[in-house]
Amino acid sequence: MLSYTEENYLKALLKLSFQNEERPEAGTNEMAAYLGVKPATATDMLKKLKEKDLVTYKKYGKILLTESGKKNGIAILRKHRLWETFLYEKLDFSWDEVHEVAEQLEHIQSAKLVDKLEEFLGFPEFDPHGDPIPKANGEIPATAKTLLSEIKAGETCKVAAVKDTSTLFLQYLEKLHITIGTTLKVIEVIAFDGSLSIQIGSQEPRSVSMKFAESLFVQS
Amino acid sequence: MLSYTEENYLKALLKLSFQNEERPEAGTNEMAAYLGVKPATATDMLKKLKEKDLVTYKKYGKILLTESGKKNGIAILRKHRLWETFLYEKLDFSWDEVHEVAEQLEHIQSAKLVDKLEEFLGFPEFDPHGDPIPKANGEIPATAKTLLSEIKAGETCKVAAVKDTSTLFLQYLEKLHITIGTTLKVIEVIAFDGSLSIQIGSQEPRSVSMKFAESLFVQS
DNA sequence: TATAAAAGTTAGACTTACCTAACAAATATA
DNA sequence: TATATTTGTTAGGTAAGTCTAACTTTTATA
Lengths: 220, 220
Prior knowledge:
2 copies of one chain form a homodimer. Chain A is α+β, with helices and mostly antiparallel strands.
């Protein structure tokens, strides 16, 4: 049985490992920063996680999740994303409101609850941000890796996921009527600053920044 | 902001006050027993709750919730019963499984979540056990006070709520196909031991004990 | 490669929620 | 009403998770 806090550390390590797939190990400070605690605190917890065989690490070395640690982390991520989907689909929460509440809901302990919730939602593969929802067996559905900024002028694609999940970005997307599945046509790419002219659905073309184009995953 | 534990103490005090409406105050040992902690622990917490103006009490005296304490307690009860309803109605949990998970869910902090959940469930007035669900303003719907044991032979009534929410009793009810709303006709009352012959819906009459009849609230 | 900077650890302290053991007050009963 | 029992409190201790301050190791750079 893992504590609320231990679960958060595992989830953080899992997320950090996703950020850099070739280098899945994390550092103490990195982890502490991610969780909003001091490095000393992270060191303490690391010892406990190692004791429980959830991470491998040695003093001054890098941190890596063990199989068990990864499995537990994925289970939490699964719950998080299922709850996000529930809040968005069933309770009309907006894109940018779901995360905070799901942070709490992900710690509810009940295997039955998770599985029933998944069934109730119709076994969704992706959450409201387009992130893949791990299956009960730990499998994670394949996910789009192409950024909007990689699409050439004249080509069409569909929004698959958001890379940046900040409130500011999500609210901007909402304002532009962009959601998962929206069709985007790249009209023109401005070499000078990397900005794009895109057509959103059947709207009039409009310009978006390079930063914007690097924050959206698409399926071409 | 109340801690998980503080919330549980408030809920316990509220429940205890319901148990004896003429004497809504509780004792330290009573409270400790209800929460499964030692009296010394309860005393400690009491001091904290008093500090926060959630209870009135003086050394060696009785404990009473303040208006603020009551309001907070009711909010938690509201969440608990809404979640129970969700689990039962939407996720197919059985009568006796909902409580344990709702004990966790009731501590999720999000005003929007509670209200949206209530709306999603169609503003239910009673939870799966027939207990009233407090409204957002703290109002608690009126509830049946008549026990099945008070019904006279020949009279018909409807199951309104369970007084005993133990797993054993709930599972027994399920076996008898009794649920909230089921019509019961009292065929005969045996003076010797208080047992009853009742007709459940359109089933053949059968006998139930006095203990049983004192564990069900009905509407006549 | 020597040293400065960055990264990580240790020691000691605090808070919350719990405990046990010893004590004090209130209540019940002989 | 005196005493025994029940009820409640205090004191001191523990574990989890956090902190700051001082220290050590690793890495980067002059």
